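Researcher: Batch entry, complex prediction.
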Amino acid sequence: MAKNKKMVDAITSMDEDFAKWYTDICTKAELIAYTSVKGCMVIRPYGYAIWENIQKILDTRFKALGHENVCMPMFIPESLLQKEKDHVEGFAPEVAWVTHGGSEKLEDRLCVRPTSETLFCEHYANIVHSYRDLPKLYNQWVSVVRWEKTTRPFLRSREFLWQEGHTIHETPEEAIEETERMLNCYADFCEKDLAMPVVKGRKTDSDKFAGAEATYAIEALMHDGKALQAGTSHYFGDGFAKAFGIQFTGRDNKLAFPHQTSWGVTTRLIGAIIMTHGDDNGLVLPPAVAPIQAVIVPVQQFKEGVLEKANEVYEQLKAAGIRVKLDDSDQSPGWKFAEYEMKGVPVRIELGPKDIENGQCVIVTRHDREKTFTPLTELVETVNAKLEAVREGIFQKALENRERRTYACKNTDEIIKALEENGDGFVKAMWCGEEECEDKVKELTGVGSRCIPFEQDNFSDVCVCCGKPAKKMVLWGKAY
Amino acid sequence: MAKNKKMVDAITSMDEDFAKWYTDICTKAELIAYTSVKGCMVIRPYGYAIWENIQKILDTRFKALGHENVCMPMFIPESLLQKEKDHVEGFAPEVAWVTHGGSEKLEDRLCVRPTSETLFCEHYANIVHSYRDLPKLYNQWVSVVRWEKTTRPFLRSREFLWQEGHTIHETPEEAIEETERMLNCYADFCEKDLAMPVVKGRKTDSDKFAGAEATYAIEALMHDGKALQAGTSHYFGDGFAKAFGIQFTGRDNKLAFPHQTSWGVTTRLIGAIIMTHGDDNGLVLPPAVAPIQAVIVPVQQFKEGVLEKANEVYEQLKAAGIRVKLDDSDQSPGWKFAEYEMKGVPVRIELGPKDIENGQCVIVTRHDREKTFTPLTELVETVNAKLEAVREGIFQKALENRERRTYACKNTDEIIKALEENGDGFVKAMWCGEEECEDKVKELTGVGSRCIPFEQDNFSDVCVCCGKPAKKMVLWGKAY
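Model: Structure tokens for the complex:
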């Protein structure tokens, strides 16, 4: 039989060129393909299956917390976008404008939603009248458009997929609680399901979402020491309600303005997975979101009984709820090993005539290539244990990378030295609260403020920049 | 306790004004809300939950048939849209054009996808090289935009949600088989899950999809006798492949053009559900897609033990996998009955102190208001049986409506008479195959060709219009 000509090409090593290593994985693991639509991409089946798994887990979590899904239009009339001053200032420069419908010129041009606060506000104004109508806990899974100048698959593209939660509440306390609840939900998802450690914190004022009173974020450290914002949660106070005339009759029978939140994560999480767990052999996927959790590679599959046994094993694992694939194509086992390493399949099961004779198989975990011989009678338990071992293993590896690359610094010279000696990473440093110092730190050292971590560690009394009394410990880093 | 002021408003009766009855249901069952974006709508939680159920069932069916989900960009450069002549002619007049990104004018303007054949073709050209790369069986769940002049919720809106399947095959036979397989998949879904009888057939040439060699469709008859196209499946031959330069090396080592299909259903299905099953009390939902399959309404809920028992029943049904809601709000039972009838909940369970004493409850089915006293020990089985009874009952009702309103006519006078005497409906009539006759029938009688049914019934030898020899029996109707 003719062999399939496709080979698993080697990818650029991450030490040689991290950016190229990243895009190599995106294309060679068949996550994306480029298109003639500048800054946009095709998310291919393997990439989209990861997103579907992320969606399933998050959607279940959101619904368990009482949220309902809705769907708003993808267009926002310019006049509607302009209603909240800060919001339009933040977003107008980077939106795509629809000016014609068919051959007709539109009177009020429409932007393709960059985010949907304005549409939700218009809707709330129509449906919220009494405290009995509150809260509304909404979410939608859609794509949004932001006209970025430079783009990279998953990390920064002109169109990206996301979920945007939008909620509206009777009191500020309730809204703030929701903001925090959803940040915790994201953090828990990232750590448990994506095996990616994150720091929870509040953004400084200069880094808030356009129109928000407070923005909270989770920050992760990538393998190359750069920081990636993995999710955000915003508290709006009643600013949007006032701009859009949303009012309700309270328990005291008086008119009041409700308080709002919004929160979102995007396909950027797939970029985060790549850069947190990947290695020079390709992708390494957290089992919870891996489209294939275990792949069975038969060895000497033409020998009698091998494919039969492999199929038995396949059915057994499938019945146990494991996402399993049996590759009985005519490629060599070596080719298949490389292919599924590239695709980051957490567990590989090798099964040849000798194994079958001995009533066992070989299990190899992707992240550490550890081999285990397992009796076929204990297969399901062992595969499940190995999937958990992968999760735990890649989480610990990522955590160690972050610990090793987190530098506590007392002045900007220390920051510069730490980065020079140890490479990019998170910098912990005290801050006086002035934007001027924030800017100056960035100018002098290259790292910007990522967030003010909830978990504070006040190891110095003075600002890393001006030396005046410090208010907060800030986490700094180079951003993606 | 203060009562919630919201009341269940009566809706316009369908006999009085079918169009108003329809939009009343859309808004009062809280399926949609209008927005300031002309021709677009908010799909509210209850409406979106129906769509989510449709998606879940169809997505499972598609995947079982080997399809994979992908995601293409929402934009198509004008130059790409223009590659296939018929296709661009069909769609260009009704697309929304993005001309500016931020403050910059685009060189090649982008349309918001009205459908994605051109993007899939561009992608295929990049990834299909050998017969070994075929077939590709892709699907995506996205929204598309068509700049309609007059719009109605779900039936015709400028933006709508849909799935678009796109497949590419080695041979025409395989592609035609896929086209038919997916039409059958849609028909089976409509009849089994939506309880909506459909006629499968082929569109006449004048009614084909822009760029298709053949378009197949399923047609349903609404309660008012109008026809609704509920799903389509297109066979493209190799026309797109030639226009986009998609070629593969065949088994004979020669270059060849592959053959393609596409197929889709949209949120229009929700409109079809409303107009097939709804009545003057509101929506009637097929159990398979009902967000709430059974609602528990406690009677005299302030009496000791009632809410406790209601909660027990709730937990029991939930554990059995039934989508159940317990409404223990302080509205009266009568208000709740009306509210959940409006929302089309298939089964209502009434539970009061006397029922509890007798170890029973009352089950009322939505479509026929039939009451059944059921021992609480047999609750799960009975509710499941009732859900099946609703499905069967509404399917039969819709089928009877269609049979009653299907008229076999031998000439245009008979058509006019049948429609006048019995109201709008499907007309079966023989056709010579000439577009001229097709147009003339429409002009004279008001009904257009819906499809050439696969199930032919050649009850006359001559064309209903010109009297020349007939080639096919055509199904005619007034379109939504």
